[in-house]
Amino acid sequence: MNKAFSEIIIGHSLNKIKLIYECGHAVYMDISLGILLVIVGIILLIAETHTPGFFIAIPGTVLVIIGIAYILMPTIDPVLLSIVTLVGAMIALFAVMMFYKKLGEPEPPSTTTIDTLVGKMGVVIKKIEPNTLTGKVRIDSDVWSATADHEIKEGTKVVVIKGEGVHVVVREAE
C-alpha cells in the first residue's frame, strides 16, 4: 500500500476508525474510538444502577475494557483485539454474576417462637380478657392471640411476660 494513500486515511476525522493495512496485519485504530467506547460503556453502567437485573452491566463493562484497550494500544492486531474482547467479556460476565450473587443473597428466614417473644413490646388490637384467647396483640408485624390477668383495652401497649402454647400472656407496659 502506498504512503500517500495511508496519509490520506490517517488525516480523516478523529471520530472515524482508520484502517491501514500494511503487510496485511496491523490495524490502526483511532484513540477517539476508544474514548467513545469507554463513554458508552460508562453510560450503560450508570443505566444499570437505575435498573438492576437488566444485565446491561456486562456489555457496559466489555465496552469500557475494549475502549481502554484501544486507547492504550492503538496499533492492536485484529486477532489480539478479538482475544481482548473475549477475555474482557468473560471477566465482565464473571464479575457481574458475582456482584449480583452477593447483592441478592437471601437472608435466613426468621423463626419466631413463643420463647423469643418474652420481653417484647406489642399493641392490643382486640380487647384482651382474662382466661380467654379472644384478645389479639400485634408484636412487630405478627398478630398473636393473647390473654392477661385483667382486661386490657385496644390500643394499649403491652409487654409479653410468657408464652403458653400458641398464645402469649401479656401485661400493660409501664
> Which class best fits the helix and strand makeup?
alpha+beta
Average pLDDT score: 76
- Helix share of residues? 40-55%
Radius of gyration: 34 Å
Question: How would you describe this protein?
Answer:
43% of the residues lie in helices and 18% in strands. The N terminus is likely disordered. It is of the alpha+beta class and 174 residues long. The protein is rod-shaped. The protein contains five helices and five strands; from the N terminus they run H-H-H-H-H-E-E-E-E-E. Helix 2 runs antiparallel to helix 3 and helix 3 runs antiparallel to helix 4. It folds into two domains: 101 residues, no CATH class; 59 residues, OB fold (Dihydrolipoamide Acetyltransferase, E2P), CATH 2.40.50. It has a five-stranded mixed barrel.
SSE topology:
Blueprint: H1 3-10, H2 31-50, H3 57-72, H4 78-103, H5 114-117, E1 121-126, E2 135-139, E3 142-147, E4 157-164, E5 167-172
Parallel strand pairs: 3-5
Antiparallel strand pairs: 1-2, 1-4, 2-3, 4-5
Short summary:
The protein has 174 residues and is α+β, with helices and mostly antiparallel strands. The chain is built from 5 helices and 5 strands.
Give short descriptive properties of this protein.
single chain, about 170 residues, alpha+beta, OB fold (Dihydrolipoamide Acetyltransferase, E2P), 2 domains, 5-stranded mixed β-barrel, rod-shaped
